[in-house]
Structure formats: C-alpha cells, structure tokens
Amino acid sequence: MSQSVYATTPKPRPIRAPKLHHATFMTMEIDPMVKFYEAVCGLQPIFYSENAAWLVNDEANHRIALLRIPGTVPPVDKPHSAGIHHTAFEYPDFDSWLDNYVRLRDQGILPAFNMDHGMTMSMYYADPDGNGIEIQVDNFHDWGKSSEWMWASREFAEDQLGPQFDPDMLVAAREAGMDHDEIHRRAYAGEYRPAVEVPNPSFPDRWAEKIAANPELLRGVPFPHAAEA
Description:
This protein is an alpha/beta fold. The chain has 2 domains: 20-77 and 205-229, Signal recognition particle alu RNA binding heterodimer, srp9/1, CATH 3.30.720.120; 82-204, 2,3-Dihydroxybiphenyl 1,2-Dioxygenase, domain 1, CATH 3.10.180. The chain has 9 helices and 8 strands. The strands form 2 sheets. It has a 4-stranded mixed sheet with strand order 1-4-3-2, with helices on one face. Strands 5-8-7-6 form a 4-stranded mixed sheet. 21% of the residues are buried.
C-alpha cells in the first residue's frame, strides 16, 4: 500500500488557508481603469492618485489595486501571452446579474464573450488595458452543490467551457417569464448561442488602438527624474 502524502511530505498545505483578498494590475493610465471598475463592478477608490489607486466594493480595505510604476511598457500580444486570464466577481442572484448586463449595455459597455459553464453563467468583459473580468452567477444557488457538480459530473469532465450565449436572448427569455433555472437549462443546451462566436475564447487586444492614438505609450511610464528634465 502506498504511503499517504502526509507521510512523505509533511505539512503539504497550511492548516488554515488564507483567503484570496485582492488582485493588483500594473497599468499606464490610472483614470480609465478606475472608471471601468467602478462602472462594471461597483468598485470605488479608497485611495486615488496619479500613479496608484486602491478600489473596493465590500467591507475590505481594497479588492483591486492599480499601479502606474515607472518603466512600465505596453504588453506584447496580450491576448495570447501567458499570465492571468481574468479575475471574477459574483452576483448572489440571477436577476441582479442580468440587470447589471442591461445597465452596462445601455452605457455602451458590452462583454467580449459569454459562456454557460454549467456551474455558472458568466459574462467576460475586457478592461481598458485588455485584462479580463468575469461577472458570474452560480447556477446551483449553492457553492457546495456547484462544487460537487464540477467534481462529479460527466458534462464538466467532457467540456469545461460550455456553450457561448447571447445575453440579449437571456433578457428576452426573462421577459417571457422564464426563471434562472429554465434559462440556464436552455443556455447550457446551446439554445441561446450568438450569431458569431468568439474563438478560443480570447479577449480583444486593446493596445494596438491605444498606441495608434498615443504613440508616446511606447516610451513607457516615465521615471520621476525624466519628467523633471
């Protein structure tokens, strides 16, 4: 009989695991990033300056940090580079989640792609720097049940992404009287697929357009002494 991992690797994990607290992004422009995260996620700055901002939408001191560090330069082929794909925020109920889509849509802020993963329905937005933000709702109304489905279901074992959906079709379905469970069932069956699906799926590359509008970005965030010279 093989030995337990605890016999061969003492204390392989902390007995009291820390909880995820915040994500930090390097950026070249603080203002548009602050405006985006306030609009999409309701994050407001606890501290806000020209070169840094700490944002929060709950009782924590911050959930997103933005740093404009001297020497920061534009990324190269960001949508296809290794690294963090997205950070995620969750609504407690379907109606709040879908209402947020409608609010943002009416402001001209649209998701890059949308997917029913089985355990969640998720809309993915790209921030001004091209970082991904997932806005999700749990389809099981219970993390324990959705975790069990991920662990045990044949569906998730065979396909971890699930079908893409058109969120306006979800809005129409709700207006027709369908509830979360029925809309999820239909979306997961592929009934609400968009006319054009996003391959991979990947986020748009914001940087070609940003650099074309402001070629000075290629020089990077200046060091203090360079600004004074």
